[in-house]
Amino acid sequence: MELNTEAELTEEIAGLREELARRDREAAEKEVQLERYAADLRETFKEERALTQQLTRSYRATVRALSNAVEARDAYTGKHAERVAAYGVEIARAAGLPRPDAPDLEFGFLLHDIGKVAVPDSILYKPGPLTTEERALMARHPAIGAEIVGQIEFLSDAVKIVRSHHERWDGTGYPDGLAGDQIPLTARVFAVADVLDALTTDRPYRAGFPLRQARTMIVEESGTHFDPHVIDAFRTIDDMTFVQIGRDA
Ligand SMILES: [Fe+2]
Fold first, then answer.
1. pTM tops 0.70
2. DSSP string covering 186-233, please?
């Protein structure tokens, strides 16, 4: 083995130092590049998020405009859609739905009766009880609504609520006569909210029931009209939560 001279060693060390310094410079440059890249990504992400939020706001405004258009015709229901949507969100949360305040859920709640645009005024505004024929026409509103909403891509998840909100747990509802778990969960949740609002609201032929009484009437329909699990969740909600929503809407 050949021994290096001192001069050779010094030269080798200097070379290694230079190599190290070069690698350090490269690493520092890469780090700056990576930081710039991360900052670009963050900026893009922020812009994307702002756009998504803006889009969601536009969707929400469109859906509200649609639901208000339906309500403007149905003079007796007043702010029914807004109230019932808020009830629906509370019951969805209590029932453990994964995204109780997701826009698609709220859109379905708000638009549940949009099919009523196809129901003639003479039936919609009739103060007395409906004839069998009139009831049959009225019963078409979930299917018509689902057709309307089904054509709009961003409302595709809302369709289930619109179509199935008059189904009953025991299979005697409409339009499809679905029973139990066949009924989409969101529609089972919404059915409770819808009936709660119907019972507590004044109608031309009767005054609204007090909240406590309406809640008891609903609980009594557990397993017949309503999903027992949803009713269990519904029972855990404080009266004040519903009173507050009624006041705000
Ligand atoms: Fe309805």
1. yes
2. HHHHHHHHHHHHHHHS-BTTBPPPPHHHHHHHHHHTBTTTB-HHHHHH
